[in-house]
Amino acid sequence: MLGFCLGVITASLLSLFLPIVPPFFSIFLAMLILLLLARRHAMLFSVGVGAICFMASLSWQYQQRQLAAAALLAPGTTLMQVVITSPPITYPEYTQLNATVQSGPARGYKVKLRWQQPPALAAGQHWRLQARLKPIHGYANPGSVNATAQALVSGLVAEGHVTRGPHILLAQQQLWRQQLVARLDSAIAPYASAPLLKALAVGERAFSRQLWRGAQHAGLGHLLAISGLHVGLVFGWVLWLSGCSKGLIAIRRQQLLALLAALTAALLYAWLADFAIPTLRASIALTMLVVCRSQLTRLSPNRFWLLLVAMLLLLQPFWVLSTSFWLSVLAVAIIFFVLWRFPLSGLHWQARIKYFFVFHLVLSLLMTLLGSMLFGGFSPLMLLSNLLFVPWCSLVAIPLLLVSLLLTLSGLDASWLWQLTDVAFRPLLYWLIYSADLPLWWPLGQASALLMALLALLVTIALLVQRNAMLLLPLSLVLLSGSALQPPRWQLHVLDSGQRQLVLLQQGKRALLLDAAPALAQQDLNDTVLSPVLRRLGISQLDYLLFRQQRPDRNRHWTLLTDYPVAAQNLQAFSEQAGAASCQNLPAAYYDVRIEVLLSDNRVLNNKPDHCILRFTLGRWRVLLPGIITPAIERELLAGDIELAADIMLLANNGSAAVNSLALLQQVRPVLALNSAAFMNGYGHPAQAVQQRLALLAVPLLNTADYGAITLGFDDHELQISSWRDQILPLWLEKPPAIAETLTTTR
């Protein structure tokens, strides 16, 4: 059994680096070869069987998903029967809903739909809809969520919009869970900590921007989402209460009854959280524990952990792509390790209190290290926050919440208990609000992440030999924070942001931001694109913000100013003046970068002045940013005596054929062309004609829809090019064509 589990886990990690998912029939060939080669080596054979079982599960589920996706993504409009699985989210332009397909080859898989001007929608409704779907393809930026991998984990196969046509409401079920959530909402409405109470009661985190920011800065995001920690707390508390009833219940199988009661309570709590994936994993783990204990099977913690991880990966092999999965299982491994390495030395109360603090200190230090590796950085408040609030919430706040929740759902008046629960959660609420105003995040580059992983291995080995080795960890974190500083060279990031051009010019912690959004753009990309990028890249100061068609009523991106300080004069200039005037306020030099305003458009487009044309010079490299221009502006550029030569050019108008003419490209003579466009956009950008013009001039084109965020690193003689989508694991996810890693200038 040990070899089998090791084989499953090893194969799951190696599968991340496979170029393709192996065909299912090839698994049987591998099994035959294994039988011939390893029949005399039992351990090797067991490891091989485990690896083959994982690959078979991965291959089978991947093929089934591909068949479901092919059925839904056939050309044209798809007619399908779905059930809405969660409350729809309403935006000004449309309503977004998550639904599960109820018929056809895609039965049981999920789709994400947008519906403009829909009827009244609610969870539990069954609809027959006509929709136009496309593959899952989210933004690929530093710090962003891997949308394709997340879709594999959650069972999402397509997204799209509901088209016009006859849509039939087949049935409407009133879900019990939604009724209970409504009852909870009315019970906690008067309290300031209501968002925290709801998040930890039913798993719905309707947090304000301030609370989200505070959770990130404090490193307490794991505590504010129902996970294995919370489900395990319910199981543990009910098991402890059942143990206190010994002698009161005259039943032979007292232990079995206690285990079943604890498991039932944990499953009900997971159901209240809508069986979110972390709670589903915890439910499987607790069920395995109860089965082992009820059968009087004694497994050591390390063997139980290996069996648990192997079973989870066999049931759902796509969980190997989930960061939360590895955070959960490695956190359990750390707990087992600490319990084994630091056992309780005495039974008196002083020894118990000492052990409690030592256990949480060591656990918090190791979890800080783990979180830094998985999330690409850490907050200095993370260790202190976990030391303060994990014990407090585990022993006081969450038990009070669960008792209040139980009484409320039972129909009893628990208002006095909710007041006490609110008081218990107030310190956490105030800490999050305080942390929100502290922009504390130390990002780790790729080299620092590797150092962190090596440090974790060394600390683990040292702990096996000497307990005091843990004292090296805080010093190591301080040293790594120094290595987290960004390299001093200049970098230009063209972000993956759909039909808008978001460009960051960065050196270390400072940056210049340009946003050439479409004239009718209403979406604020701060939460989905900019904040994760700035956090991941370690940018804490935006020196200049340049927007196209600035309007006081749009108020786009100014929420950034709560996180990233901008000089007052720049804020006033760029928020109140029009695009052309903003360009004139740009300095001629930004540190050692030369900024040229080649043409400031004073014409009026859509009642607002339009964007200007910029060129950056970084050492020997020149970057042309035309932004959004008209054919008339392009003709003026070509007719004038403006020297347009540049090494890199960001195509105007997202690669539209109306501009980016062959004459303009010949005058610019770029060695590399970049473009920002949405995946499968309705405009056909970049236009086929533009691609042909670039091919005629032998200029390579990199498009963000294919490559994700594109980063250019500028050295004196080389231009280093990297794309974010190329760096995403697993390798068998759809990748863009290969690009040259460096270019050399001849100018």
TrEMBL record:
GO terms for biological process: establishment of competence for transformation. The chain crosses the membrane at residues 16-37, 44-62, 223-244, 256-273, 303-319, 325-343, 355-375, 387-409, 440-465. It is found in: Cell membrane. The keyword Nucleotide-binding does not apply. One of its GO terms (cellular component) is plasma membrane. Residues 20-162 form the DUF4131 domain. SUPFAM superfamilies: Metallo-hydrolase/oxidoreductase. Keywords: Cell membrane, Membrane, Transmembrane, Transmembrane helix. Pfam families: Competence, DUF4131. Residues 200-465 form the ComEC/Rec2-related protein domain. NCBIfam families: ComEC_N-term, ComEC_Rec2. This is ComEC/Rec2-related protein domain-containing protein. It comes from Arsukibacterium ikkense.
